[in-house]
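User: Can you model how flavin-adenine dinucleotide sits in this protein?
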Amino acid sequence: MRVSSLREHYDVVVVGGGLVGASFACALGAKAGANPLRILVTEPVAALQASTSFDARSTALSYGSRRIYERLGLWQELSPLATPIKNIHVSDRGHFGAVRIDHANMGVEALGYVAENQHLGVVLTAALDRAPNIDFLCPAVIDELQPRPDGMSVRIQHGEGLPEGITTEITAGLVVLADGGKSILSERLGISGSVTHYGQKAIIANIAFEKSHDNVAFERFTDGGPLAVLPLATQQGDHRGALIWTVEEHEADEILALPEPLFLQQLQERFGYRLGHIEKVGARVAYPLSLAVAREQIRPGLVLLGNVAHTLHPVAGQGLNLALRDSEVLAELLAAAHDEGLSPGAMTVLQRYVDAQRHDQDATIDFSHYMMRLFSSGNPALIWARKFGLFSIDLIPVMKKTFARQAMGLAERRTRRA
Ligand SMILES: Cc1cc2nc3c(=O)[nH]c(=O)nc-3n(C[C@H](O)[C@H](O)[C@H](O)COP(=O)(O)OP(=O)(O)OC[C@H]3O[C@@H](n4cnc5c(N)ncnc54)[C@H](O)[C@@H]3O)c2cc1C
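Assistant: Here's the modeled complex, given as structure tokens:
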């Protein structure tokens, strides 16, 4: 519930109410037993929906993420505006070979779903508002975290007059840092990370085209970089899709500034005619792409979650999906520790989380990184490898299933859940 005054102490303070912070808080809030954990979520923007997390992008949610939102009781609200992906078509411009993954062969109703981030924001914000054991405060900026023997002290600037608003100092058993890939707080805490710049930007826009997408998600690899068109719900008779077009960094500004007919022409050349003529494009935005992985995910009283822990290339649509799996596991372990009478910020508790998620994180980061390297390269050996790779993935059922399970976010859940 939205608050204007704060308690002196919270069991868990979540810094950042974006896609990951809000989803994690809902997961932890849903664990409320007889003695629920008290949770605070803080967000700098005046209304959570105005967070950059809930901008004009769309997100491909894996089938595994659907199941997570189902367990949180949020899927019913999300599903009416989430477009099912029934098939995935992966191809390489100018080369033979394509992987076609069909939901029926995988025994699921859909391989994944495309949700508009703004809609995710509305649903998550409403869920935070309803949860009796979650306080959320916005606008509010955490400007200092200081370790204490039993957690963290947290200094918060809040109130409408930000940046010169009210300053309040509270304590927390655990601070969950979910303030995104440009986290100033992790920098101030001296948490370093490895960063690989891909020298690319993703141009995002909604597009309309001539033919129905028939719930197919297209992933196409071109010499400039990967290009994806994800199916969106038809609007006012327009067949719509979410475009994620990876281009070389130096080309991005020029492509963004192209008049609409020229933009559509260049896009058509790269994408081909699977959806007929591409007719319209909405507002275009470019995001620089890099892989960033924090060297520390936990300290006493602190855990990093979402983009601040690992920012992935969006080519494989794994960033949020991985963070949702992390969030669910962390929430489960914190609730269990609370029942055992352990502090949520105790290293024994946080180490259990790191141990539980290490393999999934490593595998997902590698999957995204190598997909991106393989499919952006003009190197003849790699072109041959991806041609052969796509061809063999399509022909060999075991490879196809493994590839699809990773893309669906189910690969690492087999051992944890039926
Ligand atoms: C073009 C593109 C396409 C993508 N497509 C997909 C996809 O299809 N599937 C997928 O799984 N992933 C996808 N991703 C990745 C996904 O968007 C990210 O994984 C996700 O946004 C991470 O969310 P986050 O909450 O960690 O960070 P953010 O979205 O950056 O949110 C951080 C939040 O913290 C707040 N904040 C910042 N500083 C402070 C502070 N000091 N105090 C309090 N709050 C603060 C911000 O206002 C914001 O609300 C894509 C990413 C991009 C760029």
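A couple of observations from the model: Residues 412-418 have pLDDT under 50 and may be disordered. The chain is about 35% helix and 30% strand.
User: Helpful, thanks.
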